[in-house]
């Protein structure tokens, strides 16, 4: 029990404390019904007034009376706020709260942990090392120091605005009861906040000691483990002994005691985790792994710590491959759904792809570079040059259903649609709409169209559907959702869920080498058939950005909108190939401006080699039947390339790639766009793009 509450002000929103500036009703509407805690603390031997208000921790320097007068005379605009109203909220016209002009504001979503101690040093120890006697029960508290560990995003420049760093601030108060009260309040609010409830407590970590510069273990021990300790996460760590071991463990072991699975490695390691979790879920549900009726969502979220050669998945998620940033996002606990693509041949599902599936140039690089792994990251440069010079173009046919783009309307702002050119940032509106629809729609909804297509293609192989499923499938998508869930979909939403027509079984093929043909179908949707000779073909699930290509090969791909970008690079001249590579490497270039590059947004595409088109029997030259294909290039003929799937080699030549909207939850907020730091004297939150400052759409050009 608390013996004293001296100097502490616990008020209800709308009480006299705040009625000076706001009406009770307005305050309740704006600030929820949360308690307010207000005390004086010392920070680096200076007096500060500290306020815990809803989901915000605010502190501001207290100024002495004499200085106050002085500054009032000299700089009237820097007038200190009067006693007791320093942090009084001022209700802005738009309903948001603002604080004093020199306040430091920290959102609880950005707090990693709170610790108290008898000394400053003790209060900075991870929770497990702390002596608990000063915080619990009825014992007399002794701790006078309170340390708040939090994350802050650095916004240095356009190219460096996504790194996060760990910061801490230690408050001192001579009254240990006040310190205890603050400690308990902060912990309670952290736990009760929506993001706080998602924070990881028990984590299964896989370390790939083989990827990248073979520094996975050191990276984890030096940079990641101390952060996990600070957040009090209980970690079980497994260092892999061989390729595909992660997948095997995830498929067979009991995972009920973990909140999340974390991998320390490159894209191949992330892909192993995703494949392991999705195939595990399919087994749990008794689905046919070769031809599943639908693709289920795994229950465990995935954390990714980069320790590979390119780390495009992590870079696309956070806008940087900084290890600490990735670890901090795990601690903060905020999750977003990440699209995952299934890759199958005509007979079976092969594997899942999280970043890019690429044929031609990048496929050759993947196949070639495996032999030179001893070179480290240099192997990509060496194999890249070799594959570039040897590339004579590959004949192929692609079939796809292009996602429609809409004209701008009041209901569908340009940022959602007309916009094959919107960038996916934190709080992305396009992905949010896809996410909310994903949550509301029936489980079978995600795959009904695919099943319909499959049944057209293979009527004999397809099993009978339940009548209820049939009715869902036969209805147009928007109508089905409205009638089942009583949703009112606006134009933006219906466009994301637009029904797609069935792929015709016997497509009338155009003479070889044509640049593309459309099959007329009802409505504004058309199956497109494209044939040609290609330098490279890419199905990009995400931007595929990395340190060498900061915008990625597919700059406008979204992390969770259920679509993929099909990039076709025609074989032209060597010079044009160089132009293409330079465009992908720089920040300024846009490959879509190149006349020999075509980009299509779709949910699915089908690839065949032209040889396979003429010889249907020869559809799979070297099929990979196992869920995760073995590395190694079995394709002997230079007429064909291989597929590069998340850095691993797949050798099948009849490939279908389908996107599954937000199939996996990952710890991320998404990259941020650069905004110039505000001028001195203007109050700005320490973490401007905190999850809860969800006040703007980041879908910008
Ligand atoms: N102990 C191990 N020994 C050998 N191979 C391993 C081991 N653990 C994992 N692997 C395999 O190593 C391969 C490469 O790993 P990873 O993709 O993480 O690194 P990378 O290729 O250097 O990085 P990136 O894919 O980002 O370029 C993966 O296919 C993975 O299955």
UniProtKB/TrEMBL annotation:
Pfam families: CERK_C, DAGK_cat, PH_CERK. InterPro entries: ATP-NAD_kinase_N, CERK_C, CERK_PH, Diacylglycerol_kinase_cat_dom, Lipid_Phosphate_FormReg, NAD/diacylglycerol_kinase_sf. It comes from the Eukaryota. One of its GO terms (biological process) is ceramide metabolic process. Residues 63-82 have a biased composition (Basic and acidic residues). One of its GO terms (molecular function) is ceramide kinase activity. One of its GO terms (cellular component) is membrane. Residues 198-347 form the DAGKc domain. Residues 63-83, 117-138 are annotated as: Disordered. PANTHER family: CERAMIDE KINASE, ISOFORM A, SPHINGOSINE KINASE. This is Uncharacterized protein, isoform B. It comes from Drosophila virilis (Fruit fly).
